[in-house]
Design brief:
The complex is a heterodimer of chains A (about 160) and B (about 260). Chain A has about 160 residues and is mainly alpha-helical. Chain A contains seven helices and no strands. Chain B folds into two domains: about 35 residues, no CATH class; about 210 residues, no CATH class.
Chain lengths: ~160, ~260
């Protein structure tokens, strides 16, 4: 629909999508500085590739996907993939009950939980963003949700 | 309060650097100015050539008596201009395997990194894919009917795993016919993650790699079924073991 045209567009993209990308990165990395690095790397890829997007939703989904991939790679590089994040990362905002529970999930669950509950994506959309079969996304969402229900003991409606 | 509301609230409370956006914009502007990256829609892609180290078939050689398109032309013909460049630069020597009825020419292969593509219902990013171009044609010169599809499929297999697992993991093909020859550009899942395993491409007649066509022997090696008498061709892939990613491979295999 449109393509990158210059500095103004960079600024607009950063202002528009940074927070969603930071939150997505944080949901995987659990670290503010690491999340900021991941998002900046994602933006660099964004200007290097300069894709033509169909619309803003398409653009946001692309950026989230790249951010998630970079974050997963960072997690993997640190040997933390699929480990409950609270076990080995000093949690920075440890007074947030719900967030702590989500962050304690394995990465494969919490990424999907994040996209579903924070970004309001459907299972179909998440499957497309993560390049996973819909059934896999549905299963992981269900398992993650069940774990959260147990942890939260019915305090919040899931 | 619902879980969703509470989760959003708590995540929104995370404080990132106040000047994050300004710093990011500056970094990106600097990169923009330095490399003029914005003027390029896509950058050159890395590629490595997969090496065929062994072939099993009824007969092997340069039997094609017809003039085939090049892998680059096939890729361009299906709208994959970047891949066309990769194939053009790869220097891959086509290999033809001739069966009783059909011939199969392995025309080229490439590894794509940082590819991206889009589906109609949303974005799909394909960071790593393995691509191969194949030509299928009859030895008697009779034209193959594109509408009927290719009589021969080529799938990646990994010893020790279910024969059809990478077939199930997803592969796609774009193709067309020209002068009676069917040309296909196949996109497979990233095969490099299996680089420390025994990976090969196996051709067979039919639509699906059923157990009576391709199976596993007692050692876990993927082989043709004993009673299968159709077209056979095995292309072993010499992959860069440094690119092996057992964790990613296991994750992929666990999904199917």
């Amino acid at each position: 629909m449109y393509s990158l045209t210059g500095d103004e567009y960079i600024e607009m993209a950063v202002k528009t999508y940074s927070r969603s990308m930071l939150n997505a990165a944080y949901s995987i990395l659990g670290s503010v500085p690491d999340s900021e690095d991941a998002v900046q790397d994602a933006f660099v890829k964004y200007i290097q590739k300069a894709p033509d997007f169909k619309d803003a939703n398409h653009e946001k989904a692309w950026l989230l996907r790249v951010t998630i991939n970079i974050s997963k790679n960072m997690l993997k590089a640190k040997g933390r993939k699929n480990l409950p994040i609270y076990e080995d990362i000093p949690y920075e905002q440890n007074n947030n009950e719900v967030l702590q529970c989500v962050m304690s999930l394995e990465e494969k669950y919490r990424t999907i939980i994040h996209l579903y509950y924070y970004e309001d994506y459907s299972i179909k959309e998440i499957a497309s963003i993560l390049s996973l079969p819909r059934a896999t996304v549905g299963t992981r969402l269900s398992r993650g949700r069940n774990i959260l229900k147990t942890m939260l003991k019915g305090d919040f409606e899931l | 309060m619902t879980f969703k509301d509470k989760y959003k609230e708590e995540l929104s409370d995370i404080r990132f650097a106040e000047n994050f956006e300004e710093n990011t914009v500056e970094i990106l502007r600097a990169a923009h100015r330095k490399d003029d990256l914005m003027s390029h829609n896509k950058r050159p892609l890395k590629v490595a050539v997969l090496v065929i180290v062994a072939i099993l078939a009824l007969s092997v050689g340069a039997y094609a008596v017809i003039s085939l398109l090049s892998a680059s032309q096939v890729a361009e013909g299906v709208g994959e201009k970047e891949l066309a460049v990769l194939f053009e630069e790869s220097g891959f020597e086509p290999v033809t395997v001739k069966g009783e009825v059909y011939s199969l020419t392995f025309m080229g292969t490439a590894l794509g990194e940082d590819f991206y593509s889009y589906e109609e219902d949303g974005p799909m990013v394909s960071e790593n894919r393995t691509y191969a171009v194949w030509a299928v044609y009859r030895n008697d010169g009779e034209a193959l009917d594109q509408m009927a599809g290719s009589p021969i499929q080529v799938i990646p297999v990994v010893d020790g795993y279910r024969p059809d697992i990478l077939f199930s993991a997803g592969m796609s093909a774009s193709g067309y016919s020209k002068d009676g020859v069917l040309y296909y550009l196949f996109e497979y899942t990233d095969l490099e993650v299996f680089a420390n395993e025994h990976v090969k491409l196996m051709a067979f007649e039919g639509m699906f790699p059923t157990n009576n066509i391709i199976t596993a022997n007692s050692k876990g090696e993927i082989v043709y079924a004993e009673n299968y008498n159709g077209f056979k061709a095995v292309f072993e892939l010499d992959l860069d073991e440094s690119k092996a990613d057992p964790e990613a491979a296991a994750e992929l295999m666990s999904q199917f």
